Amino acid sequence: MTKEFKGEQVAPEGPIAIVVSRYNLSITSKLLSGSIETLLGAGVAQEDIHVAWVPGAFEIPLVAQKMVEQDRYEAVLCLGAVIRGETSHDHHINRAVSLGITEVALSSGVPVLFGILTCDTLEQAIQRAGGNVGNKGSECAEAALETLSLLGRLDD
Ligand code: INI
After folding, report:
1. Which among 28, 30, 93, 150 is most buried, taking Cβ atoms within 10 Å?
2. If you measure from the C-alpha of residue 93 to the centroid of ligand 1, how many angstroms do you get, rounded to a whole number?
3. Active site includes 50?
4. Protein residue closest via CA to atom 13 of ligand 1
């Protein structure tokens, strides 16, 4: 008989942090509301959702790391929208942010979720921020809750 471990959409005991970027605010505000709605729907109390705003996606890993170091958050959701321009700027931001977020999660053991849209066009971002292709903020919140629940069950 194989033994399987699965997480569920359940609210953790402690607060959840969200680090969200103001750059491309029309998109990131929708990611934020999607993630908050999902957390509230799963039973997380409003006062247990703490939101930190950063100027752009590049600043997210540093602030996520500071929040993890406070040792009071169950998980940190990172939300942003990087949209390709005429130069390779987006490429450098995406690389730094994805590596940075991964490092914060692995070095701390705290789930730090990647809710950064990396799109070629604004239209693609609109579709992924509550349009036809879902809401990355909401997906990110679901992934955080499932991962937290799974981590709590691995010792069973
Ligand atoms: N920041 C974003 O979050 N998305 C973008 O699309 C973006 N572009 O394209 O420039 C962006 N730039 C700002 C960057 O994240 C930093 O805030 C800035 O470089 C200062 O460190």
Report:
1. 28
2. 7
3. no
4. 56
Measured by CA distance, the residue closest to atom 6 of ligand 1 is 82
pLDDT at 156 over 90: no
Q: Looking at the whole model, is its pTM more than 0.85?
A: yes
Structure letter (DSSP) for residue 5: -
What's residue 57's pLDDT?
A: 98
Nearest atom of ligand 1 to the alpha carbon of 58: 15
Quickly list DSSP for 106-155. HHH-S-EEEEEEEESSHHHHHHTEEETTEEHHHHHHHHHHHHHHHHHHTT
- Beta carbons of 113 and 142 less than 8 angstroms apart: no
Segment 12-47, tens digit of pLDDT: 999 999 999 999 999 999 999 999 999 999 999 999
Q: How far is the CA of 115 from the centre of ligand 1 (A)?
A: 15
